[in-house]
Design goal:
The chain is of the alpha/beta class and 724 residues long. It contains 26 helices and 30 strands. Bound molecules: GDP-alpha-D-glucose (GDG).
Length: 724
């Protein structure tokens, strides 16, 4: 099937220097990730995009030259005038969407003109795409510049496989839906058959926005529209690992490396590499470094920060101002601490050739990556890939998508400046053995999940035949049971994921009374003993209770809605959250106060969450106080990035990065050909909704659900499990 890639920029950048056209490969990793598709002539892949210079000053002959030269690389230009570049690119894309998607303030005022140009340039891309592709093609559209394009293509080519991948974060529904153009953007994107994001949080934010805008409902990882459904999925982008890890063998890299060894002899090098962009946390990092030097005299003369600020979007006011601010701050830190033999910051405002960058990564003892928000952040990954086994440490902000994967980095929070300072200090003084262990773990991960795999997995998913999603949840009747059991028996590797309370045992008044019966333990044991089965209990309970009740069984356990998990056959508990717990004291105060007000209510404190139970309280009184409690929780939830869950007669608060979906995804990476998942509560919906379409997702009880199937009660579910 032929593939057409559409992105704002082409992988080849065209410039006009002294009246002469020059062609050079861009710096992006996307081109190497897609190399297998674009370099192989037989595949007939085409790449459509803007060549990078305005067309006003190009003669017809120059345009032809550009088109001919680009075609040799399977690239096809969309020419844009200076005015279009100003309004569509600098204006709407980079001054409205970019800050909005990174939770930064947006330039106020009327942006209807830039929006109109955004629309018309998307239409221009659409007509070029339609002209250059045949019906039945797969079209892969990239990024926030082209969010209206999927719908425009769908209108002409209802049968095409249209994929869209967003390289930035997707903001929370609360922030996004405030935008005047939110509904148009979402409808534009939903023209695709597959929409991909870097992390499950961005995907969830997108689905929440669709729900809040009443454009569609989500079910089984699909967004269900009145006449079709759109697959929403997570594809964390990787890097060309081999390119970075093998760079040290190149002679030009070695030459730069020797130069750096000599230049920074006896010093620890902290490197920062970013486009000079308001999202990247330049000021925050400089201030943290300043504090570090102020408080640690012993570092003077022994450390240097090499700050590579790559020129970016320099026509935009906010970027010009940022440059001034950063350079002033660099000068003032250098003036404050420099001596005759030492300057603490080496600031470079320029691009850097690959061989020099690879050598710099390799020489640096620490990479300081602290964006305020970042879709993924490839620099963090490139730095780790460039290290010798025992070399550098990565300080990484938890607000970068990469933090979901690079758990062995020193994670910091740019909103809490002291974490940056401590993070740097820790990285500079980390014992060699620990450093080695952590770097190695991250390298193993990056080596496996490369950009090539990322591209392949997106394209394979896009080109898979789609099955229409059922519009409603069906009862698991005799016919469905028969099919389900047939798939169970035909499978070679099965995942059985079960919630505990309300799913395997009926809900009880006193939570401690829900201890598993002998019969239930035997059932789980029998299921788990089958070597083809992986059985996992995903519960909101704390790990001690799970360990006590089910710890002896050969099953996986996830506690506190996925904050902690224990592997099958494992002894230790691992955590899946990066959040801190400073919020607990404040929320506990509130919960206690309301528990005193409402007879029968009580508070449960777990390691990562707090729960307000009201099963035994008078309904009216509990509801009335819940409203007040919600109201008071709102600012706290916002400040500490928490999530409130209204469960079955419980109100639970935990960090927003905890979800049953996340723990499900930890397991879903394996190759299961039968997936069964059951839950009864709203807290299970994350997990039920994240499963692939082919999975058997089952809701226990009658409340609203994203699951495909439903059983009446616990007994019916247990009866089914007994048949496995
Ligand atoms: C967006 C998202 C997401 C840049 N200048 C030079 C150079 N580069 C290379 C880096 C790295 C890439 O460009 C920058 O990628 P990042 O991920 O760090 O950041 P964004 O540009 O903001 O990228 C981001 C990404 O898309 C992919 O989806 O991760 O969150 O914002 O590869 O090495 N390379 C060289 N010289 C330069 O001057 N050699």
């Amino acid at each position: 099937m032929s593939l057409v890639i559409v992105s704002n920029r082409l992988p080849i950048s065209v410039k006009k220097v002294d009246g002469k056209l020059t062609f050079s490969p861009g710096d992006g990793g996307l081109a190497s990730g897609l190399g297998d598709y674009t370099k192989n002539k037989k595949r007939g892949t085409k790449w459509i995009g803007w060549p990078g210079l305005p067309s006003d000053n190009l003669s017809a002959a120059e345009r032809r030259t550009i088109a001919v030269r680009l075609r040799q690389h399977h690239c096809y230009p969309v020419f844009l005038t200076q005015k279009q570049v100003d309004d569509y690119y600098n204006g709407y894309s980079n001054s409205v969407v970019w800050p909005m998607f990174h939770d930064l303030p947006i330039k106020t005022g009327d942006n209807s003109r830039t929006w109109e140009t955004y629309h018309s340039v998307n239409a221009l891309f659409a007509s070029e795409t339609l002209r250059l592709s045949k019906p039945g093609s797969s079209v892969w559209i990239h990024d926030y510049h082209l969010m209206l394009l999927p719908r425009m293509i769908r209108a002409e080519r209802p049968q095409d496989q249209i994929g869209f991948f967003l390289h930035t974060p997707f903001p929370s529904a609360e922030n996004f839906t405030k935008s005047k153009h939110a509904a148009s953007i979402v409808t534009g994107l939903l023209g695709a058959s597959l929409v991909g994001f870097h992390t499950s949080i961005y995907a969830q934010n997108f689905m929440d926005s669709c729900r809040d805008l009443e454009i569609g409902t989500s079910a089984n990882g699909q967004l269900v529209l009145p006449n079709r459904s759109v697959q929403i999925d997570v594809f964390p982008i990787g890097i060309d690992y081999a390119k970075f890890s093998a760079a040290a063998r190149q002679r030009s890299v070695q030459a730069y490396y020797r130069k750096f060894l000599h230049k920074y002899d006896g010093k620890k090098v902290i490197v920062t590499v970013d486009r000079l962009d308001p999202t990247k946390g330049f000021v925050e990092r400089l201030e943290a470094y300043q504090t570090l030097l102020r408080d640690n005299q012993d570092l003077h003369g022994k450390v240097v920060m090499v700050m590579l600020a790559i020129p970016s979007r320099s026509e935009i006011d906010a970027y010009k101002k940022l440059r001034e601010r950063v350079e002033k701050l660099v000068d003032s830190i250098n003036a404050q601490f420099s001596t005759a033999h030492w300057r603490p910051i080496e600031y470079l405002y320029r691009t850097m050739p690959f061989d020099e960058l690879a050598a710099l990564y390799r020489r640096a003892d620490v990479a300081f990556v602290a964006p305020l928000r970042d879709g993924m952040n490839l620099v963090a990954k490139e730095y780790i890939a460039s290290q010798k086994k025992n070399a550098g440490m990565l300080v990484l902000s938890k607000t970068a998508g990469a933090a979901e994967e690079l758990k062995d980095a020193i994670q910091v929070d740019p909103a809490q400046p002291d974490t940056l300072v401590h993070g740097l200090r820790n990285a500079l003084t980390m014992p060699a053995r620990e450093l080695q262990k952590r770097t190695q773990a991250m390298q193993e991960h990056l080596q496996e999940f490369t950009i090539q795999k990322w591209a392949e997995s997106f394209i394979t998913t896009l080109q898979q035949p789609r099955i229409a999603v059922p519009q409603r949840t069906r009862m698991l009747g005799a016919k469905q049971n028969k099919q389900l059991l047939a798939s169970y028996h035909a499978a070679n590797r099965r995942l059985i994921m079960l919630d505990y309370d309300g799913t395997l045992t009926p809900l009880v008044k006193q939570p401690e009374d829900a201890e598993p019966t002998r019969e239930l333990r035997t059932l789980l044991h029998r299921l788990a003993k089958n070597p083809l089965n992986d059985v996992l209990i995903v519960s909101g309970r704390d790990r001690h209770t799970l360990q006590k009740w089910l710890g002896g069984l050969p099953i996986g356990l996830a506690a506190e809605h996925g904050a902690l998990y224990r592997r099958i056959g494992g002894k230790n508990w691992h955590r899946l959250t990066n959040a801190d717990r400073s919020w607990q004291e404040i929320v506990l105060g509130l919960f206690d106060y309301f528990a005193d007000l409402v007879p029968g209510a009580h508070v449960e404190q777990k390691e990562w969450s707090l729960t307000w139970h009201y099963r035994q309280a008078p309904v009216y009184l509990a509801q009335k106080n819940l409203v007040a409690l919600h109201h008071l929780l709102k600012p706290i939830v916002k400040k500490y990035d928490l999530r409130i869950k209204d469960g079955n007669k419980v109100l639970e608060v935990h960090a927003s990065d905890i979800s049953k979906a996340k723990v499900a995804q930890e397991w879903l990476i394996h190759d299961y050909d039968f997936i069964f998942c059951a839950g009864d509560d709203t807290t299970d919906e994350d997990m039920l909704g994240t499963l692939p379409y082919s999975a058997y997702s089952v809701k226990v009880g009658y409340s609203q659900t994203q699951a495909r199937f439903r059983v009446k009660n616990v007994d019916e579910l247990l009866a089914l499990l007994r048949k496995f």
